[in-house]
Amino acid sequence: MQATPTPTDANAHFAVLLSGEVTVTERLKSQIHGARVIAADSGMRHAAALGVTPELWVGDFDSADAGLIESWPDVRREPYPPAKNATDGEIAIETAIERGARRILLVGALGGERSDHAFAHMALAVKLKERGIDVTLTSGEEEGYPLPGAPLTFDLPKGSLFSVLAFADIARLTIEGARYPLHDFDCTFGTTRTISNVAEGPVTIRHTGGPALLLARPNDFSGA
């Protein structure tokens, strides 16, 4: 696969359709609007509900049934052998990057039957952020955002739930704009101190060191 020329901002936004469960919401529709789309194997089943036509469909096609394939005869398919060193999702993500992606929406990245895949998507998102690529993971009900350390502000609905997941010890974690704010908190790996917070408006998060992820539920006001 050959990389394409450096893109403009207009075509650097990609969505990758993954195999996890998806709830189509107006928020998700607005996030995917205008994005170039690549489907990974059975992630193609989300295309019709989202009203998008992928420019490419990749994978080993072991989970895309014949009916799904027959429904999209005009979408170019790029098959891979089942015995390979990366998931279909990672192949689709790297293909998007080769085509110029600088912002990637991973649709179907959270939830579903495969918790191992969901964890892998979260870890991949953190690594992609380290490469300078903005990533959002979404199921429609949940959204994930890598936290690189520098202050980031998230426009979450007031009263919605969110958590900060630390994949290692992180130092001086500060959370502002939340019901339970933190200031320079040394967050140890495995703590539940940062689970089930509530947004009071835009939420700003910063820390020093260590991989971490914001997991938000923008439609969940059960903690309000």
UniProtKB/TrEMBL annotation:
Keywords: ATP-binding, Kinase, Nucleotide-binding, Transferase. Its EC number is 2.7.6.2. CDD domains: TPK. InterPro entries: Thi_PPkinase (IPR006282), Thiamin_PyroPKinase_B1-bd (IPR007373), TPK (IPR053149), TPK_catalytic (IPR007371), TPK_catalytic_sf (IPR036759). It comes from the Bacteria. Residues 149-212 form the Thiamin pyrophosphokinase thiamin-binding domain. One of its GO terms (biological process) is thiamine diphosphate biosynthetic process. This is Thiamine diphosphokinase. The keyword Chaperone does not apply. Pfam families: TPK_B1_binding, TPK_catalytic. GO terms for molecular function: ATP binding; kinase activity; thiamine binding; thiamine diphosphokinase activity.
